[in-house]
Amino acid sequence: MASETVSAVRTLERNISQVVLGKPQVVRYCVVALLSGEHILLEDVPGVGKTLAGKAMSRSVDGSFARIQFTPDLLPSDITGNSIFDNRENRFVFHEGPIFHNIVLADEINRAPPRTQAALLEAMSDRQVSVDGETHGLPQPFLVIATQNPFEYEGTYVLPESQLDRFLLRISVGYPAREHEREILVSHRMGEPVDHLRSVTDVESIRRMQAEVRNVRVETSLVDYLLSIVERTRDSPDLSVGVSTRGALLWYRAVQSYAYAEGRDYVVPDDIKRLAVPVLSHRVLVRGAVQGGQREVVEAIVDRIVAETPTPV
To answer: Are residue 208 and residue 229 in the same domain, yes or no?
Structure first.
């Protein structure tokens, strides 16, 4: 792989890491989602930097950005836009909503009711929205970075499986280590450091890298290894719902992107193992469990399935 490509990825990660301190894995996952052309869900308790990570990603790319604060009274048209009658032209004119940007931060997505959440489904899967019978394409690249608090928190709704399945990765930010938290306190004395973050790449470069990711080699034995794990989730007595075909395809793209971010043009078994939990755990349901609950249990089951599946030599 060309050295300038590796350098571009490293520069992007370093830029985000200037404000997302001590979280290299979170930064890497955000970049993997961007390179895959897919979406990411940051789930954790309030105040640990989920929104900060999303803003840092958006500011690092010289593209259009919008932040949508999801609230109980948010309407689908507040996201997609709507048609308004223009007296001068004597016709209805479509006015684009905030979804028409390269990077969209859907902040606290599970605070809006399911009907409003559903406004994102078509945009996330087909890169378009349909309003009043007309279809409108979204700018490319298009990435949704959604944040949500654990569903047990007051005033939250559970994301439906159909929407969860459209996120490439679900990850936790977690509390920072003490030394990084000290640095955060000091760096925020004069304001938000993310507001001064500069862009280090543009949308044309992102489109080029996304195209290059699709050329990363995945040997047949590794494809079979990935599918063996997917099939085991479907046959597991602990799970009532296994990984979908869409989930398998997105996992395939994710491991290509991870290898690319590592500076390789080929995938190794560890790429598949490393991404199993963040890619698969939100696509399966524990048998008899309440929807959206027992995240730790789900992740442990996925880890066990991966460990029990023979690794190709």
So the answer is: no
